[in-house]
Amino acid sequence: MARANNSIYSALAANLLIAVTKFIAGAFTNSSSMIAEGIHSTVDTSNQLLLLYGLKRSVKPPDKSRPFGYGKELYFWSFIVSIMIFGLGGVVSISQGIAHIRRPEVLGNPTWNYVVLGLSFIFEGTSLIIAIKEFNKTRKGLPWWKAIIKSKDPSGFLVLFEDGAAVLGLVIVFIFMVLSHNLNLPFLDGLASVLVGTLLIFVSFILARESRSLLMGEGLTSETQQKIKKMVENDPDVITVTSVLSQYQSPKEVLLVLILTFHAELNTTDLTNAIDRLRAKIKAELNVVKFVIIQPQSADVTENDFSTDIHLE
Predict the structure, then answer these.
(1) 2-216 has which fold?
(2) Transmembrane ranges (predicted)?
(3) N or C end: fewer C-beta atoms under 10 angstroms in the chain?
């Protein structure tokens, strides 16, 4: 979480400063693409604040109303961020761009726009580099896209995508601004705004997909489930593991439910000791597993008879 906070704070500082300068430059030069970029930076600033709020809420300790804690607050606010990128960033930018294509305005002196774009590229680029370094520490040698798919901490890849889209958006605006000014084609400025908005919508769909998956309840990977199954079945008191059910409550908290068949000759004390032993062993082996529920099953119940045999991927 601390690593994610570093990238979020750097992005927040960069976006807050850049948003103000973009709006001022856009107002002086009648540039719709610069205004679109200002909207983009404003949305990104709001997003960082929402992510920080989600992180703060997610570490609240469990209570009577939330016995498994508040970890999913982070997943909820990450999903809200993806919606804001779509609505306030993408749709507004496209709408404004279309309006300027239909009624293009002659650009004023673009010098201030170039200055703001240059400064923005420095700040956004610095923030992106920080986000890349922080995410790189968590991917453990996995390819970038696979690491994003497998990541259970949306605050890391959200900032990565936002900063990446911001830098690419700045490049788009710069190219079209140069063309618009040199070719005297003011409608190109509106086209740049449309392209920036389209980019934001594309990014929002990717982020919404990943955040929704986490919010709906992702579980441990198949490899980890097999590891747990093998570990438990090696216990002398266990006959077989019927089901391994799991769900991430937060990036560092997993709820694990095991349906086990124990040897019939175990008495109540033996069964209790076995359950305590297995629970301690699993938690010692997998730090991410915070809650372990073990349900014994009669030896004469087959796997096909157990109607709730569901494996969360």
Answers:
(1) Alpha-lytic protease prodomain-like (1.20.1510)
(2) 6-25, 74-94, 114-135, 156-179, 191-208
(3) C
